[in-house]
Amino acid sequence: MERLDKESLLGVQQAELTAPRRDYSVASKALFSVMDLVYGKERDLEKFRVLEVVARVPYQAWENVAYIAMTHTSKRPDFARRVYDRARVARFEQDNEQWHLLILEELTRDQPRSWLKGSIIPQVLALSYYQLSWMLFVLRPKWSYRLNADFEDHAAHEYATLVEEHPEWETEPFDSFFESDFGTYDSLADMLPKATFPNAIAELGVDPGNYIAVTLHRPSNVDDPKNLEKLLTDLVAISREVPVVFPAHPRTRKRIAEQLPDLDLGDQFHLLGPMGYLDFLGLTVNARLVITDSGGIQEETSYLGIPCITVRENTERPVTVTMGTNILVGQDMAMLRHETAQILAGNAKIGQIPPLWDGKAGERIADLILSQAEQNAGQEILVTA
């Protein structure tokens, strides 16, 4: 997936400004009211720094509960694995929120900050939100997910309004120590919408681990009207059983609008705009299944242990089929439906991470270059990448 460009980021901001807010729960309204009471209703970066202190704790709560649950499910390895996958996406989301906090800390480091409102109260809010999140999760996970969806929706609307209130940020460069980790942006106004790019799981109200992620962009699938109609018709039918989340490439969305204007997608088929790489990775990690025609996603799902169905006749990543979790179905829609049903029934292909997929390829290449240099002392060695 491509990183969101300036136009897409502006689209995210405008979408948040015009979208209606969720019907917030009593607990959510109480949290937002306390924030306004202590820090005022006026929006500023210091208030958003406090918001980011709180933002990561539901994911931390879910991860901790998941690890406890795994200790009681060791006799059911398939269920334990699904619990572990939820813990893994919770860790990913914690890291994502942590970058937001570090950047806001950096942006507000020169602002005066009282000990009580700057340090103590944020931690009290975070601890309270953490306790509520894990208790709701134990009682009924959907309640905890809803609480977090309320929080994410509120934060996204508030950030979009904050950026609109400060047009001067359009020309203020985004210069950060964490730029290499979080991303490079032309201005502060470009960065802030990305910092709150909606969590698709929370925003759509689908349960982590119980949806199918889809990405399709190859001409053989989206440019041929008959193939596109077959694919979309089957995916919509599948979505009646389990939600489908489809962040579509602009070209794909255009083809769907042009060729299938009357197709009824239903309530559980979520056709979204493009996502940045990290956002889509978060969507992938917590999916029950990924249906794709992308080469790179075949590798990522195999590494993550996520079932993958590839709508292509062949693949340049054959190891994902022979050893990983990938299954090729080509244009055979009956096979697509069959394999999807098998995975949803708990009969997913068990893959393994291929040898040498250990993140140490760079070290091995460096060792090989040094070895060649020692063997050919005094000679020039040309290295290209």
What distance separates the N and C termini? 22 Å
CATH superfamily of the largest domain: Alternative oxidase
Here the CATH topology of the largest domain equals Ferritin
Q: Strand content of the residues, in percent?
A: 5-15%
What's the number of structural domains? 2
**Major sheet characteristics:** 6 strands, parallel
Class per helix and strand makeup: mainly alpha
Radius of gyration: 23 Å
| Count of beta strands | 6
Low-confidence stretches: none
CATH architecture of the largest domain: Up-down Bundle
Give the CATH level 1 class of the largest domain: Mainly Alpha
Count of helical stretches: 18
One letter per element, helices H and strands E, the order comes to HHHHHHHHHHEHHEHEHEHEHEHH
Written overview of the protein:
The chain has helices spanning 6-18, 26-39, 45-55, 57-70, 77-107, 115-139, 141-165, 179-182, 188-195, 200-204, 219-222, 225-239, 250-259, 277-285, 295-304, 319-322, 333-344, 361-375, and strands at residues 212-215, 244-247, 269-272, 289-292, 308-310, 326-328. The protein is mostly helical. The protein folds into 2 domains: 6-200, Ferritin, CATH 1.20.1260; 212-344, Rossmann fold, CATH 3.40.50. The protein has a 6-stranded parallel β-sheet, sandwiched between helices. It is globular.
Summarize the structure.
The protein is mainly α.
Throw out a few tags for this protein.
385 residues, mainly alpha, Ferritin, Rossmann fold, 2 domains, 6-stranded parallel β-sheet, 6 strands, 6% strand
